[in-house]
Amino acid sequence: MALTAYLDASVLVALFTDDPFSHQADLLLRKGLPTVDISDFVAAEFVSAIGRRVRMEEIPRDQAGAVFAAFDAWAAQETRRIE
After folding, report:
1. Tell me, what's the pLDDT at 2?
2. Residue ranges in the chain modelled with pLDDT below 70
3. Alpha carbon distance 27, 59 (integer Å)
């Protein structure tokens, strides 16, 4: 049976932004999990969390665009979408 990890939005935000938990999230993925699952709901929560950071002026809009592009590229290559 293959090991699978389901990532929630808080882990994704930590992976793609400067976050207090970025180091731990990066270590989790460096463990070489064979399958990483994310759902469309979690992707929507991620977008919402990044949008909130833009509105709160924690990150600039252009940085958010780069975060979304990096997430999309990573998700397309490294994850399996579940419903």
Report:
1. 65
2. 1-2, 33
3. 23
In this prediction the pTM is 0.86
Cβ-based neighbour number of residue 44 at 10 Å: 11
Q: What is the DSSP string of 45-60?
A: HHHHHHHHHHHTTSS-
What single-letter DSSP state applies at residue 82?
Answer: E
User: In 3D, which of 19, 10, 15, 8 has the Cα closest to residue 59?
Assistant: 19
Query: Which amino acid is it at 21?
Result: F
The residues, ordered by sequence, that sit 6+ positions from 3 with a Cβ below 8 Å of its Cβ are: 33, 34, 35
Distance of CA 71 to the CA centre of its chain: 6
Q: Length of the chain in residues, anyone?
A: 83
Helix (H) or strand (E) holding 27: helix 22-30
